[in-house]
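Hi, here's the filled form for the chain we discussed.

Project: internal
Contact: R.S.
Residues: 769
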Amino acid sequence: MASRSLGALLCMLLGAGAATPAFAQLAQAQPPAQAGVQASPDQAPQQAPPPKPATAEKKEPKPAEEAAPRYEEQVVVTASKVEQQLVNAPATVSVIGQQALASKASQDYAGLFRAVPGVNVTQTSARDLNITSRGATGTLSTTQLALIDGRSVYLDFFGFVGWDFLPVNFAEIKQVEVIRGPASAVWGANAMTGVVNIITKAPREMQGTSVTMGFGTFNRSVDGQATDPGNGGLFYTNLTHAMAVNDRWSYKVSAAFYGSDPFARPVGTIDNSFNTPYPSFSNTGTEQPKFDGRVDYDFADGMSKLVVAGGYAGTSGIIHTGIGPFQIEQGTNTSYVRGTYTRNAFRAQFFTNILDGEAPALLSIGVDGKPIQFSFNTKTYDVDLSNISTLGTRHVLSYGGNVRYNSFDLSIAPLGSSRSEQGVYVQDEWFLSQKFRWQIGVRMDHFDVLDDVVFSPRTTLLFKPQESQTFRASYNKAYRAPSLTNNFLDVTILNQLDLGALNPAFAGRKYAFPVAALGNKDLGQHSLDAFEIGYSGVINRRASVSAAWYYNSMVDEIYFTQVGSYSSSNVPPGWPLPPSVLDQLIAANAFGPGLGLPSDYSYLNTSNLPGCDDPKKDCGALRTQGIELGVDVLVSNHVNAFANYSWQSNPSLKTGDIPDPRETGGSSEYNFPPNNRFNIGFNASYGRYFGDFALSYQSEAYWQDVLDARYAGTTDPFTLLNGSFGVKWAGGKLITSVKGTNLANQEVMQHVFGDVIKRSVVGEVKVLF
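And the returned structure, exactly as it came back:
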């Protein structure tokens, strides 16, 4: 019933939009400060040139080298699915432009996003990284949505983003837009803490051929190692070719490869009360081939465009999960096909994502005594429609929706074969006066695994004392849906217990016992209520300034937690001690409040945890707040500098909430983010020479999302120094550069269970034809 109602509403909204005026009429109907334009990543954002100031007398223009630098206002599309100036966006947005992409020192998305305020980045292996805005990240970041040209790359089976599965290379990216804060009111499920939208260049914007090759080395020595493993190596290359055949047809193709040796593993014991030794497993590097193609057709009417694209991305290497690391086998790949049609403000898109791979566990052993084998095959089909209309001269109405279907074939979740979801949204930007605007909207989503329709409202009041200055106050409600494994996981693993800790007579003896890990089909959505006060502005056309304070309240987070214990009435096979010892473990809260030797794990919403049926307790309300400050300055025509600072509080745990396992040994999976982060740096270009330098600092963070409480712990604060320097030759046709990360060669661990990341230096050559 709910599904049919949402579908009918979507058809009604889009049918009403059939009479949407042409873009020129739409622009005229709105105040000149912001003409609402359809958010089409396949059309280059356009912006009217700033008016020329009136002058009393004619002056000779300054030479280009002497003219004062001027900040050009950026246009973004992700905040509202409407093209708008960055200063007018109803959410906090950061934009990573082409200059930063071209001069960046890092070779992956980890270094790219680390410089963004409020964004936490965790790299745990040569291939594995996770990104979360305004909250702790982890081995599987489930609350951050990622898009490429509006196509979701969120993987529903685990509920995370595989950044190595993106099929394009950095040379094809036009800009990256990062929404810091919830956006479910537009993008639906899983846009809970933020959205990253990677917008690629159209073929006409990158005509020609380019070849890039890079060779690098990185340090792998770690204090306490018995032998020095020597340096590791990495290699990457990419080829792009784009051509405009005529005024109608254009195309581009690209191919890329990235390969890296494994990073160093930590040695010794984890710094916690258990002093757990780091487990030994065979660490591996990664190999990532990529192919992508796109064809654009511009219709003769000048208003319509069709884009057809497809690609392939393969990967291999380590992925860390709650039940330990898995080795993603070579040949694991994802492919996609996308078709996008736009006409003025109307946009229709279809895409399919296909994922196929194998990943045996490295630590988790099944009851047969062999590593758990994880095979996965998923297919996603999505249809998305959207439009914009104007109502009178004060309202800009945007609306649309999507239908999504997933099919699954997962060896560790055999009972979950499919999932369907539908959603519609509508939002109105109301121009109250010259200085005030009010945006209000709501999205409704229906999942076949949730009982009720999920509502995601949003409202933002904007005050503009000047055209280039905006203060805003907003409220958003966002959510993430349970992943397929949350609902249908079904696997039994062997855990180990050191019996010497219970009886000295058994010192050195390990006891293996089975633990069942099961999904929960009754899970509800994980929800977030977010309040924000923010500012965005351009100062003297030389600097872009942003500031934000936010307060988040998360409800019903989904935890993988112990739900059963062995006892004298439920004795595990081969238990060598008296059964009464099992009851004593429960009485002593050995594995958390009321918990003994684990027999069963499952997923629970926080409101369903033991003890939360007491109406006097406020279970599951995790409250955090933070401050973000940032500035980008045009120092001169040749130098751009930036600085930003983020403060994030740890969650406020009220009586009845999940206990902090640092004090109780409880079974919470909630990680604690670094309280303080700051970045400072610059990029420069003068004649043939270019380069950048950046310093990033992060305070300590706490992790508890791998295996059990014995593997929880804190990572040390760290400071990364990254830089690059390059020279252009032969009129810019040949470009050489040297890039380095972690130049101080610190032993950096970004997760208590992750690899050790040290200094890396890369030499790169790029040829343009």
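Let me know if anything looks off before we file it.
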